[in-house]
Specification:
It is a single chain. The protein is α+β, with helices and mostly antiparallel strands and 984 residues long. Among the domains are: 8-129, Cytochrome Bc1 Complex, Chain D, domain 2 (Orthogonal Bundle); 187-229, no CATH class; 277-385 and 654-714, no CATH class; 389-436 and 600-643, no CATH class; 444-592, Galactose-binding domain-like (Jelly Rolls, Sandwich), CATH 2.60.120.260; 913-981. 41% of the residues lie in helices and 10% in strands. The strands form seven sheets. Strands 3, 6, 7, 8, 12 and 13 form a six-stranded antiparallel sheet that branches. A two-stranded antiparallel ribbon has the order 1-14. The chain is globular and about 120 Å long.
Length: 984
């Protein structure tokens, strides 16, 4: 390997031997600093600071530069400084000019790092470790005690007493800042807030009115339990999750082809959330469900998480992995899996470590590529599976039989001759005997002649003298002037073979049709027995075929079949008297490219005859065995067809590589063509309680790597996973997380506003079984959650964003919630769950680069009136209406949606085709339920859309609008109110 860290023990041994001189204990460290001064400080000191790196102080060494820290005190093997001075890679070694450091000098530096990088003047007792490891997010979770109640708050008007420990933590912080909590929101606001937060739908008027009138103190808690038990809960919270994992129903990139089988992962998320699956299981299934719970529906569908993001179809399907672009595509594919896994579950950014050590967090390139190694065997593809264990068992058994039979068939084909395998492949393509390819085919076309009696010839050089059994001429098929089959086939011609390229001597005439006209053969191949040898084959047309007021000579293919059945002309050099070179349709090379129109049944008949001939010549015993193998394969396929069809989900598979991981190397500056040391599977080294590398047996299966990563993620000693999820849930209930950067807990992310509460929630969640519903219940039943969102100017002057939670945050509904609420108000919402996503677009050019036309969709299509979570999500062309309302971009991992307010939003809510249709439906509902009285219609419209009655002024204005412009226009106005689009 070009670059390699010298083992520490070897370096230390080199130091011990050195030049044999005895040195005082501090001498190696003084020498190390002297080496830096002599060889490094010229470029990395006070006068020059290349890459923003200084090596003239301990602070500079620990801080690092553009590519992160260069030393890890106490760990020379993980220190970039040692790697750079020890490598033999001339593009990476330091110093870049002059002599390399000697092994003795490298050893001196390594010994110095192992002892903690001592430096004159450093603080006594300074920690000999990376200072970036001392960060709140990496520290173990220690469950803090719950603060005592703040009794003084209970006496405040409208402020309810503490309802659970969350309130104790929040109010202790408020008391320290001389702030107090806000009064409890009124009951109509509470129920609307709770419905939207837990189900994403508004309460029905009768539900709201019943709750407001219920005097039972437990009414709120009962409502919480009922909403958490609703299937609508999983749909609501799955949408949040799908944002974070950048789920989409198309690949993205240039072609952006659809993924018709992506939806099972979306349905898995909804199902898992509704079932309140323990979070540890939820995480593990998405990383390694097929390994840890094989043969289960959830285990198979959950790993769609790994394939949820964009995927470069061209880079994977059209570019081989050996090419640079193919390497880049696969590197980026693994990068997406790494970033999605660590960013989603652990809230750590790792992208930049593919090019250099993380600038701010203790994430090394080794860490990053160890994570890539976890996914090194995977490719994205449709995955077939069965949830019926018996069906799966039988299918697996049949697959094993099929694999064994196919392996034996390949062995026999190799023994009989490579031509047999080619014939079998052609037979598979030929299809039914009743089907032929008579469409246009590319070929050779001589120059056009004004007269028929003009001689034209085309000639093939076989490369050397070959024995020729048959010569086959394959006519063209072209729609020009209605000619069709047999286009340009000569009316009179001859076929000759010679070893003289000029055909001046030694000519063997294979066929001569020059005395009378030959009828047009259509696309039927003309097989001419040759029985001769030669290097050159020439076809000469002596009377040309009629075209349109002129005459031509054209052929689709010329074959020279040897006694073994090989086409000796395939791909050989072609010359001719003249030629129309109009690639790709017409050119000389086309006559030997293997492409020609076929007559119905001709391909299969010819190929079956050739196969029979090959098997006969192979001998009776071998032919019989081959027949038995083919019969076995046919029997297996018949039995497979008798089984219930397997289910299909777009996911990841190791089958394309036979389960064998690709070798993963650390890439210098992320360059796929500059690999350095190879990395085994592992993860981040910043969690001190857990090992960073997976020590697996040499013969481990691919899935063992993902299983090890899943165990690392959900280990109780991993603080990142448990802090991450409780923070995400908190964010969706309050509009802002306890950590405002929910996918970046690193040193450049936000610090927790309530660190003790974050750790208490994380410990409570982790140790309580990882129930998300219990976490929701704890949060939404707190007095903190139930506060009014009203602004208090004096408090806003102290804490303008209410990060200390002296009030609840006022939040606008997400795009899907607004859309679903419109359907609910109109009475058109279809609550059908699961299955393929509904599409509100038409597709142009579906076979190449699809163009998704939302303007061609029919807003009256009832199939599109399902919940927004079931929308078919396109990456390249996002839905204009939803995008205007800040819908998540599916090409990005969206931790928190924007909440903008703009004029285009008002215009969309007023004029979009969806809104126009639903306003009419809303008006029809009001006419049915409220009768013809405009005042009654307005009253019912407010109840359905806003959960309240209009005041006198509102009623008068809306009645006037109904009378003047119709009920549908009044409905459009109500659905466009700010009050409709905000939670409270």
């Amino acid at each position: 390997m070009a670059a390699r860290i010298l083992p520490v023990m070897v370096l230390l041994a080199a130091t011990a031997c050195g030049d044999g001189l005895a040195t005082p204990p501090d001498e190696p460290h003084s020498r190390a600093r002297a080496i830096l001064a002599a060889r490094c400080v010229e470029c990395h000191g006070a006068d020059a600071v290349e890459s923003n790196l200084r090596l003239d102080s301990r602070t500079g060494l620990l801080a690092g530069g553009d590519f992160g820290p260069v030393v890890v005190p106490g760990q020379s093997a993980r220190s970039e400084l040692i790697r750079r001075v020890a490598t033999t890679n001339v593009e990476q070694r330091m110093p870049p000019d002059g002599e390399r450091l000697s092994a003795d000098e490298v050893a001196a530096l390594a010994a110095w790092i192992e002892t903690g990088v001592p430096w004159p003047g450093s603080v006594a007792g300074e920690a000999a470790s990376d200072p970036r490891l001392d960060h709140w997010a990496w520290r173990p979770i220690v469950k803090p005690p719950v603060p005592d109640a703040e009794a003084r708050f209970a006496a405040l008007p409208g402020v309810e007493p503490d309802r659970n420990p969350i309130d104790r933590f929040i109010r202790a912080t408020l008391a320290g800042k001389q702030l107090s909590p806000s009064p409890t929101a009124d009951r109509p606001v509470l129920i609307r807030r709770l419905f939207f937060d837990l189900t994403g739908l508004p309460p029905a008027p009768e539900e709201l009115e019943a709750f407001v009138a219920d005097p039972d103190p437990q009414a709120y808690d009962r409502l919480v339990d009922r909403l958490l038990a609703s299937p609508r809960y999983g749909e609501r919270w799955a949408r949040h999750w799908l944002d974070v994992v950048h789920y989409g129903d198309t690949h993205g990139y240039d072609k952006d082809q659809p993924r018709p089988n992506a939806w099972p992962y979306r349905d898995y998320v909804i199902r898992a959330l509704n079932a309140d699956k323990p979070y540890g299981r939820f995480v593990s299934e998405q990383v390694a469900g097929d390994v840890l719970w094989p043969g289960t529906r959830d285990g198979e569908e959950a790993i769609g998480f790994l394939a949820a993001g964009p995927w470069d179809l061209i880079g994977h399907r059209e570019v081989p992995e050996t090419k640079t672009d193919g390497k880049i595509a696969r590197h980026l594919d693994r990068d997406d899996m790494v970033a999605n896994t660590i960013g989603t579950f652990a809230s750590v950014t790792v992208h930049c470590a593919q090019c250099h050590a993380h600038k701010f967090d203790p994430v090394t390139q080794d860490d990053y590529y160890a994570l890539q190694a976890v996914f090194a065997a995977l490719d994205r593809d449709d995955r077939r599976y069965a949830t019926d264990h018996e069906v799966k068992r039988r299918s697996d058994a049949l697959q094993a039989r099929k694999a064994a039979a196919e392996a034996r068939r390949r062995e026999l084909q190799a023994a009989i001759g490579p031509r047999l395998a080619a014939v079998e492949q052609e037979l598979a393509k030929a299809g039914s005997a009743a089907v032929g390819n008579t469409g246009p085919a590319y070929g050779y076309h001589a120059a056009i002649s004004p007269v028929p009696l003009a001689e034209k010839w085309v000639q093939i050089d076989l490369g050397l003298e070959r024995r020729i059994r048959d010569i086959v001429l394959r006519p063209c098929h072209d729609t020009f002037n209605g000619i069709g089959a047999g286009f340009g086939f000569p009316v009179r011609y001859r076929v000759e073979v010679s070893n003289d390229p000029a055909f001046g001597s030694g000519i063997a005439t294979v066929a001569a049709f020059e005395a009378t006209d030959v009828p047009n053969p259509g696309v039927a191949p003309q097989t001419l027995p040759a029985g001769t040898s030669g290097r050159y084959l020439r076809v000469t047309a002596t009377k040309l075929a009629a075209r349109k007021n002129d005459f031509i000579f054209a052929l689709a293919e010329i074959e020279a079949l040897t006694p073994e059945g090989e086409n000796a002309a395939r791909g050989r050099a072609v010359t001719s008297l003249d030629s129309i070179e109009a690639a790709p349709r017409w050119r000389r090379a086309n006559v030997v490219d293997g492409e020609a129109p076929r007559a119905p049944g001709e391909s299969r008949q010819r190929l079956e005859a050739e196969r029979a001939d090959l098997l006969t010549r192979a001998g009776a015993e071998r032919s019989a065995e081959y027949g038995r193998v083919v019969a076995e394969l046919e029997a297996v396929e018949a039995e497979q067809r008798s089984l219930p069809p397997l289910q299909v989900a777009y996911s990841v598979t190791a089958a394309l590589r036979g389960g064998k991981p690709r070798p993963i190397h650390v890439l210098a500056r992320g360059n796929v063509n500059a690999p350095t040391r190879e990395m085994g599977p592992g993860t981040l080294g910043l969690v001190a309680a857990l090992p960073a590398r997976f020590h697996l047996p040499a013969d481990h299966a691919e899935g063992d790597r993902r299983a090890a990563l899943a165990r690392w993620l959900v280990d109780p000693g991993n603080p990142l996973t448990w802090r991450s999820i409780v923070n995400r849930v908190w964010q969706y209930h309050f509009g802002r997380g306890l950590v405002a950067t929910p996918s970046d807990f690193g040193r450049m992310g936000a610090a927790p506003t309530h660190p003790a509460l974050l750790d208490w929630l994380a410990a409570e969640f982790r140790d309580g079984g990882g129930s998300l519903k219990a976490l929701h219940r704890l949060i939404v039943t707190s007095a903190t959650y139930r506060q009014s969102s009203a602004v208090r100017p004096d408090y806003a002057a102290v804490d303008g964003e209410a990060t200390l939670l002296w009030r609840q945050h006022r939040r606008r509904l997400e795009a899907e919630a607004i859309r679903d609420a419109v359907l609910a108000a109109a009475g058109t919402l279809d609550l059908t769950m699961g299955g393929p996503g509904w599409q509100d677009f038409a597709i142009e050019h579906p076979q190449h680069s699809p163009h998704y036309r939302y303007d061609l969709a029919d807003p009256e299509d009832r199939g599109t009136w399902r919940r927004g979570v079931y929308r078919f999500v396109v990456r390249s062309q996002t839905q204009p209406f939803m995008t205007c309302l800040d819908c998540a971009d599916p090409s990005m991992r969206v931790e928190k949606r924007n909440e903008s307010i703009s004029a285009p939003q008002a215009l969309a809510l007023l004029n979009n085709g969806f809104m126009l249709v639903q306003s009419r439906r809303f008006a029809e509902r009001l006419a049915r339920e409220a009768g013809a009285d405009p005042a009654a219609q307005v009253e019912q419209a407010f109840r359905l859309a806003l959960g309240r009655s209009p005041d006198a002024e509102e009623r008068a204005m809306l009645v006037e609008l109904v009378v003047a412009h119709g009920l549908a226009n009044a409905c459009r106005t109500i659905l466009n109110l700010n009050e409709f689009s905000f939670v409270d």
